[in-house]
Amino acid sequence: MSKRTSLYEQHIAAGGKMVEYAGWELPVQYAGLAVEHEAVRTTAGIFDVSHMGEALVFGPESEEFLNYLLTNAVDKLEDNKVLYSLMCYPDGGVVDDLLVYRFVEREYFLVINAANIAKDLAWMTEQATGFAVQIVDVSSETSEIALQGPDAERLLQQWTKFDLNELKFFECAREVEIVGCKCLISRTGYTGEDGFEIYTANDYVAQIWQALIAAGAQPCGLGCRDTLRFEAGLPLYGYEISANISPLEAGLGMFVRLEKPDFVGKQALLAAKEQGLARKTVGFELLDKGIPRHGYEVQIEGKTIGTVTTGYLSPTLKKSIGLALIDSDYAKPDGEFAVLMRGKLLRAKIISRQFIKKNYKK
């Protein structure tokens, strides 16, 4: 049986269309994908992302452990800052991508993908052997709301005395009261827009959710969460990155600090970079009519050169665009290939993976 978040009753009452996702019963949409997508791009949308996993990592060697476990430079992270990173296998494949919050020295908070919680925690525990560190899964007692869009700060400010303008991009603040409820908040986002993540106890989340909707936030489902992140060129585990797709192949090299003394997967990623990547992720636009989907073959002159990782008719651009992992020899700007759809070959042109301009608070 699928698990339910503490906002399940709110979703039903608001007419949310529920689907199973990563073992959870979650809303895929309310008013409709296009309406919700547009709300996030122009005003503000609110998402229940309580299915995400959370873990506390602390202890005398917590920094050394996380710096070894993850590809990014955890040792450079300052108090109340947030870091995006990847966690890799020794062969360079991705265990997961995640956010690392540093509260104070030797005290961290990790946010991991819902489908990977058990796998991630098992992997982290295995890698922690020999380190003086503790890993505590707090997923079941933590609810999370994402408030996203250009009006996000204005709407949230109505319900808190904390000056949200002080919180910069990829920063966090603890013990923030929202409608009288203690929360951890951050400003990272997964839509390409400004916005906040609000973590709180399960008993408080409905009160905060209702307050933000009363302030004007549009309830949003998983459907537009995917179209929004995709337009912003942001990866989704199992699509752009996986155990079989490395961060370098996904174009996420800026989050892989190969200059670090060591981390899990370093040798494989370093060798791949030195040898030259066999595959690369590119953005593309369809020149013929159709909508590309995950798993569709990409071909040149009858030869399969890769697959589509994500594709949509972009609600913002009103064009059929996609991301594809293809042989590096063909990953040239303005290059063309064909996408095989139901037996038909549709022409496509390589474009930037940054389909829209991101509007983060800097």
| Helical content (DSSP H or I, runs of 4+) | 10-25%
At CATH level 3, the topology of the domain at 3-50 and 140-231 is Gyrase A, domain 2
Distance between the termini: 42 Å
Mean pLDDT, to the nearest integer, reads 97
What ranges have pLDDT less than 50 throughout 5 or more consecutive residues? none
Largest sheet: 6 strands, mixed
Number of helices: 8
At CATH's second level, what is the architecture of the domain at 3-50 and 140-231? Answer: 2-Layer Sandwich
Listing every helix as H and every strand as E from the N terminus to the C terminus, the arrangement reads EHEEHEEHEEEHEEHEEEHEHHEEEEEE
Description:
Among the domains are: 3-50 and 140-231, Probable tRNA modification gtpase trme, domain 1 (Gyrase A, domain 2), CATH 3.30.1360.120; 278-351, Aminomethyltransferase beta-barrel domains (Elongation Factor Tu (Ef-tu), domain 3, Beta Barrel), CATH 2.40.30. The model has no long low-confidence stretch (mean pLDDT 97). Helix content is 20%, strand content 35%. α2 packs across α7. β17 and β18 form a beta hairpin. It is α+β, with helices and mostly antiparallel strands and 362 residues long. The protein has helices spanning 8-13, 33-42, 62-69, 117-127, 152-157, 205-215, 222-231, 266-275; strands spanning 3-4, 17-21, 24-29, 45-48, 53-58, 81-88, 94-104, 107-112, 134-137, 142-148, 172-178, 181-186, 195-201, 218-220, 279-286, 297-300, 303-313, 320-327, 336-341, 344-351. The chain is globular, with a radius of gyration of 21 Å. The protein has a six-stranded mixed β-sheet with strand order 11-12-13-10-4-14. It has a six-stranded antiparallel β-barrel with strand order 15-18-17-16-19-20. The protein has a five-stranded antiparallel β-sheet with strand order 6-7-8-5-9.
